[in-house]
């Protein structure tokens, strides 16, 4: 049982943020906090759902199904994920500013219920900050400050953040409804009004979005000065995350692509692949960091290659020359394995693949994350359903 609190802080604490009148801004109010909280809840909700979808695509559970068409769907969902995450930064900053004086309220805990509520708020704030910071570091591909696996940490912390958010909304909903239903009280101030503050926060979120979304929305690329990737940079006019040098790729002189299925096994040289019927498709490549770019790919249809070894149904395991990567292989689920647009590509925009884009050959399939568009392909194997 908690002890009865003091009505005011001890004398030793009546200074700094604990002194009376330490926080004088008249802008803070339940109404302002409620507006910011609702905007942040919507942004976090969209970011969580699109992030959960991206995780399921990359690490599919048995029940999950993801289509090959429309080819731009993942481009939209992942672009939305990154855009809402970045727009949440100024929203979260303003929300924390509106409530942080409560950190110094006395007593720290009035009773057990109040203690649990404050702990849930601490969990929400810390997980929200963690998600935004690690997300930005991932966009920038700067992993040195993260001594842990980004994918697992970001995924499971998202569940903690959303759980804490739902608890917080449930606890504060009566206050929010009451604050938003009342006629707003005029605030005597010589500076910003609450409406001005909300407009400034919204404008900041909009500027952040415009300054980054050009990495996937090509017409805005010249305005996206903060975008870490631009859709027309890199070898052959396409961005690169992992170069051949970084992946330590060495193409052997006797390079072959081995295709294995129920009817046997074939090994193809690059010349053999180039002698097969070639197809050209226009497909975007979309990375989990939020950038995407359109390109023309030329190569052999995967389903035609697999038909040579008796492929009728099931998935296809695609393996790479790259060794030290969790994405050195990927699985083409049936919707993608059978799609006419799925190629073992030999050319990009009419040119032989650059080594950084996967020479001698790479996978390109519709509506898949870039990490699953396996480069430096060396084997295709039928996986029975």
From TrEMBL:
Domain of life: Bacteria
Keywords: Membrane, Transmembrane, Transmembrane helix
Stretches that traverse the bilayer: 36-58, 78-100, 121-144, 156-176, 197-217
Domain Oxidoreductase molybdopterin-binding: 252-383
Gene3D superfamilies found in the cross-reference section: Oxidoreductase, molybdopterin-binding domain
MF-aspect GO terms: oxidoreductase activity
UniProt xrefs under Pfam families: Oxidored_molyb (PF00174)
InterPro entries referenced in this protein's UniProt entry, alphabetically: Mopterin_OxRdtase_euk, OxRdtase_Mopterin-bd_dom, OxRdtase_Mopterin-bd_sf
Name under which the protein is recorded: Oxidoreductase molybdopterin-binding domain-containing protein
Species in which this protein is naturally found: Longispora fulva
């Amino acid at each position: 049982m908690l002890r009865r609190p003091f009505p005011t802080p001890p004398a030793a604490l009546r200074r700094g943020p604990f002194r009376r009148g330490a926080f004088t801004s008249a802008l803070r109010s339940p109404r302002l906090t409620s507006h910011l909280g609702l905007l942040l809840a919507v942004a976090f909700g969209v970011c969580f759902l699109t992030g959960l979808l991206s995780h399921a695509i990359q690490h599919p559970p048995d029940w999950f199904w993801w289509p090959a068409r429309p080819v731009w769907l993942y481009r939209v969902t992942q672009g939305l994920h990154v855009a809402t995450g970045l727009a949440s930064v100024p929203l979260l900053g303003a929300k924390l500013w509106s409530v942080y004086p409560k950190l110094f309220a006395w007593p720290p805990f009035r009773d057990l219920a109040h203690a649990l509520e404050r702990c849930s708020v601490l969990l929400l704030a810390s997980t929200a900050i963690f998600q935004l910071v690690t997300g930005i570091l991932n966009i920038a591909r700067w992993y040195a400050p993260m001594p842990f696996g980004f994918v697992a940490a970001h995924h499971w912390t998202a569940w903690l953040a959303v759980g804490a958010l739902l608890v917080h909304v449930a606890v504060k909903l009566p206050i929010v409804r009451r604050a938003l239903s009342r006629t707003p009280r005029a605030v005597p101030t010589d500076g910003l009004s609450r409406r001005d503050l909300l407009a400034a926060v919204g404008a900041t979120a909009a500027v952040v979005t415009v300054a980054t979304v050009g990495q996937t929305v090509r017409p805005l690329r010249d305005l996206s000065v903060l975008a870490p990737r631009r859709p027309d940079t890199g070898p052959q006019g396409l961005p690169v995350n992992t170069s051949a040098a970084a992946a330590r790729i060495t193409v052997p002189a006797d390079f072959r692509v081995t295709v294995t299925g129920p009817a046997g096994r074939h090994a193809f040289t690059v010349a053999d692949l180039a002698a097969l019927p070639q197809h050209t498709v226009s497909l975007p490549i979309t990375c989990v960091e939020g950038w995407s770019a359109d390109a023309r790919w030329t190569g052999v249809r995967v389903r035609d290659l697999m038909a040579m070894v008796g492929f009728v149904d099931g998935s296809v395991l695609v393996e790479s020359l790259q060794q030290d990567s969790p994405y050195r292989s990927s699985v083409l689920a049936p919707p993608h394995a059978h799609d006419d647009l799925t190629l073992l590509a030999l050319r990009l925009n009419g040119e032989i693949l650059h080594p950084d884009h996967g020479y001698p050959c790479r996978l390109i399939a519709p509506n898949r994350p870039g990490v699953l568009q396996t480069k430096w392909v060396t084997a295709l194997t039928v996986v029975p359903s």
